[in-house]
Hints:
This protein is of the alpha/beta class. It contains 22 helices and 19 strands. It has an eight-stranded mixed beta barrel with strand order 1-2-3-4-5-6-7-8.
Amino acid sequence: MARLIGEGLFHPVFQPIVDIQRAQIAGFEALTRPHAESGFTDAGKLFDAAEHTGTIWPLEQVTRRAAFGAAANWQPDILLFMNCSPSVFADERFADEFQSSVQRTPGLTPGRVVLEITERTEQGHFEGLARQVRLLRERGFQIAIDDVGAGTSGLNRIMRLRPNWLKLDRDLIESIDKDRVKQNLIRFLVHFARLSGVQIIAEGVERSEELAILMDLGIVHAQGYYLGRPGSRDQMLSGEVVEWMRKRWTEVQSCRLSRPAGQRISRLIRPAKIVDGGCPVADVASILHGDAALTGVVVVEGARCVGWADKDWVIERTHSEHAGYPIAAILPAGSTLIAPDDSITDAVDQLGSRDPRNASHPLIAFDAGHVHGIVTVSDVLSTVAEMTRNPLVRTAPITGMPGRVRADEYLDAQISQSRTAYPARPSDAAVIDIRHFSDYNGAYGYELGDQLLQELSNAIRAELMQPGQRAFVAHLSDDHFLVTAPAGTLQPHLASLVQRFEATVAALSAGPVQHTASDGYHPRSIGLRIVLIPGALGRVEDARSLFRLANHIRESAENGGDRGRTLGVASQLLTDRAPAAALRRTA
């Protein structure tokens, strides 16, 4: 081992980590490959031998230096990911030695280095490891936990170390396009990461089908043979893969934009002052002094958002040895990024879960390598307060559609108007619900149930809210929706709505069914149930009468017998053509 270390019988290689939204390389992981004459066939055996012989510290020291030398003078938005064994990471010498190596590397700053804590030999080193992590974070380095999901990367370790990145183990990614349980777990981790300001990398992506599902689930960064193998620091993504990712991201983006504009955070974005990460701290302070309205600046390095530099924090650093440092070199991690198409609710969740030391900092609206501006805490709180005060602007949180209060107001006004202004052609109404929706939630989980509701709302908008149709749509509660439209215009679109819904169920329900019952229970048939009442707004007394009538029609259908016991799709279109007097008696 001493000869191998002394003669440098190894070389660094680099595997790309890809921003799959931008279809560009965001960073490289530095890996070590032993030479043939070293006597080792792979890096795993090399580092195992170093652990066994007590030479892991000098081995990692020289392999890091080789990687730093090969990574010198990269473009400023490329990150360098480096593996570190916990026993080395926990060593009291590590932080100073590592920082010294970075400072000697041209073009490299701490904020561009991500230290990966591997699974190797962690027992007995945790307290030292936690101390070194805190120290390195204070010096501007980023921390990643590798192999999350492999066994020892438990939730407790994530909570103790508070990493900037989580790298998902290959076992979670393999065949994820065919495994609903893995998809649900990734959804949970993505939600956790968003609330905690953590970024996720999916490792071991080998097929486009895996990458497609990961993009749907909200994963932004990925690594694997489909994207690029370990090799040169100058390697590029293949044109075919880039074209595929751009096309797929366009599809994902079109689904994200289906959220109503009034519910997106984009309407709260304010302009922000953006400075390059290479700008000295003293120069940033001059910019802030020159504009009293600025409370801070957004710092970027190329297409990477470094974070928010608060005005007081910057000015304080001008009175220290850091005044001449590049701002990105000392800016602490912890800024909260949010996509412009995220909802107001997403913003509230992120504000409520971040570090109290950053409580007054704005959210940075950042997406696909572009800073759109900032969203202030006061603007978010004011918007939430207004939504709470005024019931007419309340919307269903899952779909963003008008809720029951708004629907009642609209119906009562239209029913009153139909008696005078348009007595001959009153509008039709359809009340839509999902048959046995609670069974679906029990089988697949509430998150997938919420996704089904969102897909249904998108289908309703697409089919029933075309330009010129003058339709009104509301999300009444749970799985119940209301649509009204001029007489004769609804029914032609309802069959297409059913087809869209059934295709959605088939797509979402692919994979193993999960349930907790122990008696062989299977969820009953799911499907759309649509109660269409032609001319309804001229034939009922008020909104409540309309909903009572729809309930009566649904109950009559149920009494006719529906005893399906397997998960499938069974939709119904129920049309009531009773005369107005009969409708009033029923109501």
